[in-house]
């Protein structure tokens, strides 16, 4: 009997797959994440042994778990593209047309460059119908309502990859039957493609009719569209590309995380290359935090935003609500390559307060108060830290756009003595931005809890960029 499990990794919107045949007992995993226990657990649930691990391409947005999974289950082979690949670790090469037999089903590799030069898609068909694929595992080449971006390897390769993506979409995918199911490598929220749809799967027929990337039959207009629509490149993507190409570290367990009492925590925080990450809620952080800490609350989005804020070689000191959260927080961090930890604050902020150590606060301004300050405080600068597409739909009148993902560099030109208030959609990203500014020495920064959602719910006025410049 054929078995399929789809694994959605929240926060990075990554999709991986376990495919198996219970009669033969063999299973394959496509694009595993680095905390790989889930694949072993699912295989055991169905009485399967993982024998094949496939990488569709060199990933930029998450730490690959292929080597860790092979080590964990024993006897499994990692399969890597040989077509235009830059892998620098051992694996079995895969070229276009290679077939892998699992008993009741077969997987066939198809070279689908564009997002990356080496990208592979895997067709699946029943063994007694080898010429009729019923689904494709598309990795980052074709998404629901979108397609993989071709600009992650730099401007020098963007034009070539955009052309390759065009031929992949129009000369391969659009020639498949309408009934073929599309199982992509990402869902909505990933920056590996523009405006990826909410559904986790689709069909070739549906994409043929609705996907904007499949409506540009001439190469020139397609290339303009695909480059113009790409969202900003996240800070950590180039770093993770290098790590995944070289071969990610084999992780048989989460990294060691020493418990540090407040005084020792304070000393370690002053060491070069160490940064304090406070994963408590925005209101808890605002009420009192370790000086210099960056606030990224411990929701699933922590994975992606930690990638934006910290380099992979930086050592992280954690502040958490409860020590019971540590395992979950670490898992979120290692998924985007953050595997170096200097420790965590034993006893949490209560222990820090009891030890009489310095505290900093981050003022939280309700939207009602922010509206008053728009009129009465002419020295206040309101920073909208949402993404470019969000900004275009409307913003608080007079606000300036500073996307939080760009603020590591952009805030260098701002006056540290001025007054600022940051807002996003809900306050989550605004707290990241405000805490970054405070850590960089900005004197007077406030966060707006509820942010744009609260502003809109209160019925306050808004404007669009063209209105602001008219």
Characterize the structure shown.
By secondary structure, this protein is α/β, with parallel strands linked by helices. It folds into three domains: 2-246, 4-Layer Sandwich (Metallo-beta-lactamase, Chain A); 259-354, Rhodanese-like domain (Oxidized Rhodanese, domain 1, 3-Layer(aba) Sandwich); 363-469, Oxidized Rhodanese, domain 1, CATH 3.40.250.10. The strands form five sheets. A six-stranded mixed β-sheet has the order 1-2-3-4-5-6, with helices on one face. It has a six-stranded mixed β-sheet with strand order 7-8-9-10-13-14. Strands 15-19-18-16-17 form a five-stranded parallel β-sheet. Helix 3 (155-172) packs across helix 5 and helix 9 (302-309) crosses helix 10.
State the main characteristics.
hydrolase activity; Metallo-beta-lactamase, Chain A; globular; six-stranded mixed sheet; Metallo-B-lactamas; 3 domains; Oxidized Rhodanese, domain 1; EC 3.-.-.-; hydrolase; alpha/beta; 17 helices; 470 residues
